[in-house]
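Why do we care about 3D structure at all? Because function follows from shape, and shape follows, mostly, from sequence. That is the central idea of this module. The next example makes it concrete: a single protein chain, its amino acid sequence, and then its structure expressed as tokens.
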Amino acid sequence: QVQLVESGGGLVQAGGSLRLSCAASGRTFYTMGWFRQAPGKEREFVAAIVLAINWSGGTTYYADSVKGRSTISRDNAKNTVYLQMNSLKPEDTAVYYCAARTSRTYTYYSDYGRYDSWGQGTQVTVSS
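And the structure:
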């Protein structure tokens, strides 16, 4: 059974940090990403990581809004992807979703319609 389970969300003050985790099970996912959705807004891309061919590391992508403040990484042994977010801003407040795809994509990583599986979401709230 395919499952993505997110954790790590919460309430943090502006300037603070959070690390989101997404534990995957049931299949091997070669592209994993994070999206977020704020109230009244569309779901938007945050970051993605494409597993390297040799399974060592991966290619990472970031939305401009989080670039320089966030780091996506992956632990293959744990089948888990992480999103470290620093210097958080109130505009980062949203529900964050983990997404996974069973193939590599270096083109459509920011398109949520291209992902096969989704987590339930975890709330991140940044207070000013």
